[in-house]
Design goal:
This protein is of the alpha+beta class. It has 2 domains: about 40 residues; about 50 residues, IHF-like DNA-binding proteins (HU Protein, Chain A, Irregular). The longest helix has 20 residues.
Protein backbone atom coordinates (compact mmCIF):
# COMPACT_ATOMS: atom_id res chain seq x y z
CA UNK A 1 0.00 0.00 0.00
CA UNK A 2 1.49 3.34 -0.98
CA UNK A 3 0.75 6.78 0.46
CA UNK A 4 -1.98 7.59 -2.09
CA UNK A 5 -3.83 4.33 -1.42
CA UNK A 6 -3.50 4.82 2.34
CA UNK A 7 -4.90 8.37 2.21
CA UNK A 8 -7.76 7.33 -0.07
CA UNK A 9 -8.79 4.45 2.20
CA UNK A 10 -8.46 6.60 5.32
CA UNK A 11 -10.56 9.40 3.82
CA UNK A 12 -13.27 6.92 2.82
CA UNK A 13 -13.36 5.36 6.30
CA UNK A 14 -13.45 8.71 8.08
CA UNK A 15 -15.89 10.36 5.67
CA UNK A 16 -13.57 13.34 5.18
CA UNK A 17 -12.33 14.80 1.93
CA UNK A 18 -9.00 13.60 0.58
CA UNK A 19 -7.33 17.02 1.04
CA UNK A 20 -8.41 17.27 4.69
CA UNK A 21 -7.23 13.73 5.38
CA UNK A 22 -3.89 14.43 3.71
CA UNK A 23 -3.36 17.57 5.80
CA UNK A 24 -4.27 15.69 8.99
CA UNK A 25 -1.85 12.84 8.27
CA UNK A 26 0.93 15.31 7.38
CA UNK A 27 0.30 17.19 10.61
CA UNK A 28 0.49 14.00 12.68
CA UNK A 29 3.70 12.86 10.98
CA UNK A 30 5.38 16.26 11.37
CA UNK A 31 4.44 16.29 15.04
CA UNK A 32 5.90 12.81 15.50
CA UNK A 33 9.14 13.78 13.75
CA UNK A 34 9.47 16.89 15.92
CA UNK A 35 9.09 14.82 19.09
CA UNK A 36 11.60 12.22 17.86
CA UNK A 37 14.11 14.96 16.96
CA UNK A 38 13.88 16.18 20.56
CA UNK A 39 14.75 12.68 21.77
CA UNK A 40 11.26 11.90 23.07
CA UNK A 41 9.43 8.68 22.34
CA UNK A 42 6.03 8.61 20.65
CA UNK A 43 3.50 6.10 21.97
CA UNK A 44 0.30 5.41 20.06
CA UNK A 45 -1.99 3.41 22.31
CA UNK A 46 -3.12 0.18 20.67
CA UNK A 47 -0.53 0.47 17.88
CA UNK A 48 3.00 0.75 19.26
CA UNK A 49 5.82 3.06 20.18
CA UNK A 50 8.54 4.86 18.25
CA UNK A 51 11.81 5.82 19.89
CA UNK A 52 15.24 7.09 18.91
CA UNK A 53 18.08 4.67 19.59
CA UNK A 54 21.80 5.27 19.32
CA UNK A 55 23.85 2.71 17.43
CA UNK A 56 27.41 2.62 18.67
CA UNK A 57 30.38 2.80 16.33
CA UNK A 58 31.63 -0.53 15.08
CA UNK A 59 34.26 -2.08 12.87
CA UNK A 60 33.18 -3.80 9.69
CA UNK A 61 35.30 -5.86 7.32
CA UNK A 62 34.97 -5.75 3.54
CA UNK A 63 34.75 -9.46 2.58
CA UNK A 64 36.52 -8.98 -0.77
CA UNK A 65 39.49 -6.79 0.18
CA UNK A 66 39.57 -7.72 3.90
CA UNK A 67 39.86 -4.00 4.64
CA UNK A 68 38.60 -2.95 8.05
CA UNK A 69 36.22 0.03 8.10
CA UNK A 70 35.11 2.11 11.06
CA UNK A 71 31.38 2.74 10.90
CA UNK A 72 30.52 5.89 12.89
CA UNK A 73 27.76 6.03 15.51
CA UNK A 74 24.32 7.09 14.35
CA UNK A 75 20.78 7.64 15.56
CA UNK A 76 18.01 5.40 14.25
CA UNK A 77 14.27 5.27 14.86
CA UNK A 78 12.99 2.03 16.32
CA UNK A 79 9.40 0.78 16.38
CA UNK A 80 7.95 -1.66 18.89
CA UNK A 81 4.43 -2.85 18.04
CA UNK A 82 1.84 -3.29 20.77
CA UNK A 83 0.78 -6.79 21.75
CA UNK A 84 -2.61 -6.34 20.05
CA UNK A 85 -0.91 -5.50 16.75
CA UNK A 86 1.39 -8.52 17.12
CA UNK A 87 -1.62 -10.77 17.66
CA UNK A 88 -3.51 -9.40 14.65
CA UNK A 89 -0.51 -9.86 12.35
CA UNK A 90 -0.07 -13.50 13.35
Amino acid sequence: MNNKDFLLKLSQQSGNELDATSKLVDSVLHSMVDRLQNGDSVVISGFGSFEVKKKMERISVNPVSRQRLLIPPKLVVGFKPSSSVKEEVK
